[in-house]
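chain below, 789 aa
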Amino acid sequence: MPDSKKFFENLSGAGKCIGVLTSGGDAQGMNAAVRAVVRMGIYVRAKVYFIHEGYQGMVDGGDNIKEATWESVSSMLQLGGTVIGSARCKEFRTHEGRLRAALNLVRLGITNLCVIGGDGSLTGANLFRTEWSGLLEELVQTGQIDEQAAVTHSALHIVGMVGSIDNDFCGTDMTIGTDSALHRIIEVVDAIMTTAQSHQRTFVLEVMGRHCGYLALVSALACGADWVLIPELPPEDGWEEQMCQKLSENRADKKRLNIIIIAEGAIDVHNKPITTDYVKDLVVRSLGFDTRVTILGHVQRGGTPSAFDRILASRMGVEAVLALLEASPDTPACVVSLRGNQAIRLPLMECVQMTQQVQKAMDEKNFEEAVKLRGRSFENNLNTYKLLSYRKPDSEVSKSSFNVAVLNVGAPAAGMNAAVRSAVRVGITEGHTMFAVQDGFEGFSKGQINEIKWGDVGGWTGQGGSLLGTKRTLPANHLNKIAEQMRIHNINALLVIGGFEAYLGLLELLAARSKHPELCVPMVMVPSTVSNNIPGSDLSIGADTALNAITNTCDRIKQSASGTKRRVFIIETMGGYCGYLATVGALAAGADAAYIYEEPFTIRDLQTNVEHLTEKMKTGIQRGLVLRNESCNENFTTDFIYQLYSEEGKGVFDCRKNVLGHMQQGGAPSPFDRNFGTKIAAKAIQWISKKLKEFYVEGRVFANTEDSACLLGMRRRALVFQPVTELKEESDFVHRIPKEQWWLKLRPLMKILAKYKTSYDVSDSGQMEHVFGLRTKEENEVAKEAEEE
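prediction:
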């Protein structure tokens, strides 16, 4: 193995005791985090203890603190809430309460704590850590422990994971539970929209978020709400009139419904609360619209965790154990966090300090600063919402005279329509005339091109599939006709939303520029495919929705297997040669194995998996789940694996198979895909606007450089434009996958949580970073450059 990589075999937890607790408000995904901590802890030979009922259980001790086993966290992954309980604890806020908690931990040898909760819970943990040596001294003086125990347990290590549906903790892009809460909100909004449309009603929805408007803002973005009210951006005086005018204009545009979303902590500029009843009465009084109120309440905390939350919590749980193993007495308490798709560690108190600064800025009515302190993700969401929700009057839009065409290419993927809507509206705001191309490059060659207006894309965000129509046809055989249509409609730029065919198509158009000058225009591709197999992007629009479809199906199958006992299910997923869906789906569903093309396997590996499942059937967990990517091996087909498992498992377990098929491409897009599609398409159009100005020479657009045909992709922590020619070297064109794929690092994680011995690369771990707003100016510059690279 390469020397540059660091593996955790040398990190042993032997002799260490880890306590895991959930505290404060519950959030979906907490159980996945607890499961990951327990299994990773046991894997490295540490003892892991459940601390039931949060800090209350730590103070009370006794049966509240119990050793966890591998089997005790089985079937937790798909459950909402927290199985080990959570409670608010007044006693822990007192010195006497913390003294009792310290005694209970020392008696069991627990000096490593994994705390899953909000900023209050994590602040309490840090205070406990700073007082630890003093508490032990006191326990020695009162004779409750001896000197030796105080020396042995002299240092308390704390690692936090943020479990909060509000996403109100600074330093992390997403907290555990936020994505699941968005799923609940969007499910309700989608259901409400159908009834609202039937009766031409206005609905006022209140979502959670007493101090943070993230849920309100992102759900407004994801459903295309007419108006949103959040604590970080109170509306100016006279907002009532503006809102009513907008609702009225939307109805005049033949929109049959209005949606207004309010965060429970929404205020105006005078710090006066804005309630749902106030907004409802205002709409009824001013416009006479039939208006109803829906308060979502604790529905948002409930239900099963989304695939995103399960993966996030599992990754954080493993990272938390690694952080505890590497901690020294001088290591500050840290929070395991997420930036882009990377798990990082941040000093706990820096994050808390930053979170408190947001509240301070809001109390001082410095709302612009509050939005900045929330982080770039929050700021981007807000700016994108403003861009898409408010249509400037024609008199305020400076017409550009440029025509921009949008088309979908390849297989349909949930979220494509949200991307098209975003592109069209941002393009119109930028002054361009927007054209929609039906049925991909095939429709392009046939002249299926029409102008598309602002109102034409209303209500598109929540629709699955591709409303423009999409085909896998490549442009190579239609270049003359496509060039002719570009000339007829005077198309000055192209936005292609699609999968690997879109990428190949862009390369073909680029290669044809020398013969067809009409193709010398700025072109940008936005990756959209359930397979997530596009070079230059870690994520594609549609992959999250497909993952949730896989995860939900696996949950039902596991339930069936639990009922019948001693049953193993073989499940085939989509993805072509790309094993993303199989691997990440297996991690989210708690599968025992996942077969993929990128990790070749032999008959011996299959035999090992059968033996592993045979051993598993001897425990209390008498079921198995195996995922297989559709093209992982031409000989070891789903039928072959099913027959092998059936034969080898005779007398121990029986076998069933399921091919999930096109259900993975269907359904309403997940909140993540709606939001991702909306933001990435908006950024793509802004790039097009910039390039159009750059390449406009002597009355026409002429773009013939390599950087005028780009792919916009998510790389680690940032959205990056990359010339498609530069991505050729990164591409395996035969198997239609990138040569390097970040998610392969998750495979050992999946195996460890399924009780396989493996090597886990921790090269990216162990780096303690700093919160953006609390870095020095120089550190900020370096970090920004690194993220842009």
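The radius of gyration is 27 Å. Residues 671-694 form the longest helix (24 residues).
thats it, cya
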